[in-house]
């Protein structure tokens, strides 16, 4: 028989690489399907093994698990240059997943590509557009009505181009992936920053922008800077009130929000076996908050148990056969090593306003009083993609049962978000949902809800100082409820439940007592719950739409008068000249996340309409000139006004502009709208001290220049009234800094250097005007 690589080449020539996924044509002997929904798409561990062996022989050293999976998906393992933190890898991911808020722009870009079908298995998940208001069923009905146009677009686009569609109410994308699509050794990209959740099942699952997803769906090798690998060695075992969430809360405190940038966090060591599969997913999920490319755990019996319980015993059996490739090699090297003794780890709570401000639960009340943070808790919220598993709900219910036994209910408002329809149906069947209602909770829809700002909050007024505690992942200013005075803290679901019962940050469930209805004091015992249901999972309602075999008659309509959807026009090509006299739109002071650049919440409804959503550009960023948000000086009129209005004025008058940013600019969500909007409104470059990984890539994809100060102190040389000229673009080459001339109003000038991370392919994106433009050029 001909070698695998030769067969692949023949198949690509015969079938067209952009139209078919090779794995669907060339099956391996085991023929184990990647999922129940794609019975003809097979897991290809044999190819993974072959590539790993090629790379191991070349590098002549032991490999980390991260390296095995990433290098095992190289497009050309024999000749790919591999150097951690430096070279760009060309990879072939196994599949793509998109949530509904980002899928709109991704599918609009895919439509613009002119391709007939996606080249790899892909899915759309409706989870972001459901606002929490009255409760699960009512909120879901309302969302289906309000978002009918968008849901119809996504459903028909999925049917037309071969993408599976998970209807609203099915659950949060990452829980659906864990239950159905993730498996040990998979390389999956998703248009959401918490895609790393799948690392809990031993896969490399990476959050990306929509343009990256389009590349993969188009059959083009996906580029990723070769990640460094941070090892986290776990010893001891979890017990008592300490949970998997506390591991990542502790790691976030150590590494900070940018400490994982450019690296995969790889957990290993004897302590791993004390963590459930869904607990590992929790840890990987929140790795996004330290800027990590992704996080991963080695394949073990906890993963096998979860795979079997979710109807995928065949995958577990196959993984057993290839287990040597699903764990790190002995003696492998990590670029950084952190050690955590789980037996000594205490429950943590992080916040407010940033997910890396870590406190032991025992100390947070004292710190809050010292800092002037409100100690009374207004709302406790459990769920989200980070903590909505069966085990999470069970441990929370175990705490709630104790309170109910003593006649207590929550002093704070309390909400529960199931992670999926399967979780909702199962916790209803097993009584957990009712216990959580009995203690005072409201069960919300199977969706993201308040975690992403989809919360019609009524108990406070905007500007009112208050505290909430959540089991979510992010707590940036205004993220959950659009109130900048909400102090949000993140912790485990069981700690949220205990604190909601007590109603104060000053309560430590490990040591403090509550007073029952009978006046007697009692102490909550550490919760205990099954990691998986004793009976089988209840799948609940069927919410999946298969793409039809024949989609030739399927139409995808976008009304030219729609306020929700807008077909994309190509961005203009680079004119071949240096960028002269760029106006500074805003010089940002301090933290500037993608929430600051392109807010979520009520703006989510415009995610498919670029012009409309551009009205939120940088409205949350703080202008260093006056210390205000959404207030910048118009350089022509000298009047202060909203950022989007000023950008539109500049665009109308042919004035090109630039943004000046601080550290870790663009941290947080994967939303590419934070790159599309500045490009749409006339921006040309974003100059910062440093970037978050996904946002930097998104900017490149849209033809913008993400540049960093060669000397971070040069940030202080630039003032909002200056003009900038960027030189060296005619000789734009990888690794060569660009010159920036700062022109001050008094006529003086200064020259500084700007670094970049562009490779040859990315430079072509810039010259073409965007990655999508470049794709079309290559097609011609």
Automatic annotation (TrEMBL):
GO terms for molecular function: 4 iron, 4 sulfur cluster binding; aconitate hydratase activity; metal ion binding. It is found in: Mitochondrion. It is an enzyme of class 4 (lyase). Pathway: Carbohydrate metabolism; tricarboxylic acid cycle; isocitrate from oxaloacetate: step 2/2. GO terms for biological process: tricarboxylic acid cycle. Residues 583-711 form the Aconitase A/isopropylmalate dehydratase small subunit swivel domain. Its cofactor is [4Fe-4S] cluster. It comes from the Eukaryota. Binds 1 [4Fe-4S] cluster per subunit. Residues 67-503 form the Aconitase/3-isopropylmalate dehydratase large subunit alpha/beta/alpha domain. Residues 531-560 are annotated as: Disordered. Its EC number is 4.2.1.3. Catalyzes the isomerization of citrate to isocitrate via cis-aconitate. This is Aconitate hydratase, mitochondrial. The gene is ACO2.
